[in-house]
Amino acid sequence: AQSVTQLDSQVPVFEEAPVELRCNYSSSVSVYLFWYVQYPNQGLQLLLKYLSGSTLVESINGFEAEFNKSQTSFHLRKPSVHISDTAEYFCAVIFQGAQKLVFGQGTRLTINP
Amino acid sequence: NAGVTQTPKFRILKIGQSMTLQCTQDMNHNYMYWYRQDPGMGLKLIYYSVGAGITDKGEVPNGYNVSRSTTEDFPLRLELAAPSQTSVYFCASRTGPQIYEQYFGPGTRLTVT
Asked: Which of A45, A51, A104 has the CB atom closest to B100's CB atom?
């Protein structure tokens, strides 16, 4: 079955600490991978995406994610977080041949001063 | 460009009432989607459309209906509202089959009591 799993529902970290938000998927076909961010009381915004090419992708605000095909993962990392990174982060996948995003359950990132 | 707009922002319905959630996009996108977001569950696809006159069911279509008479508009109809439909509803759109980035509206928070 095709599915997306975010292993942590909540991740608390201190400001300026590194963070990793985990995402795994299950699929027998090729995938396109996305991370979306949802700030409080807002809609979702695309943070970064992997469609093809380099397996390491970066966003403009310092996040990066690496596609690992053998481990079927697309973990999101940031070396030093800021209070403004407080948000919910969703991993999402389009499975080849489908036209729909499948979302993980979301990870709430809380930054403590 | 206003992007994807949704109305209303908030609504309280009584059990058994009906309503239509409006979604409009001004980006000339062919693909449009309706999701519901429940705490800890991520986003679940209700219905989607790949063009005017074409709609299809997602994961959780029961209790909802859609229509797509124009490229711009994709309203979601709730008939006989139930407490289980209390949720935040997001509309999204994207260009077409080879362009995978989805743009989300700000959401409608619906409470059914």
From this structure: A51
The predicted structure's pLDDT at residue B98: 77
The Cα–Cα gap between B113 and A26 comes to: 38
Q: Going by C-beta distance under 8 Å and a sequence separation of 6 or more, which residues neighbour residue A97? A: A29
- Residue-wise DSSP of B84-113: GG-EEEEEEEESBTTB---EE---EEEEE-
Show pLDDT as tens, one digit a residue, over chain A (113 residues). Answer: 789 999 899 999 999 999 999 999 999 888 999 999 999 888 899 999 999 888 999 998 899 999 999 999 999 999 999 999 999 999 999 998 888 899 999 999 999 98
Which pLDDT tens digit goes with each residue over A9-41?
A: 999 999 999 999 999 999 988 899 999 999 988
Which residues 38-57 of chain A have a CB within 8 Å of chain B?
42-46, 49, 51
Residues of A in contact with B100 (CB under 8 A): 32, 34, 49, 51, 94
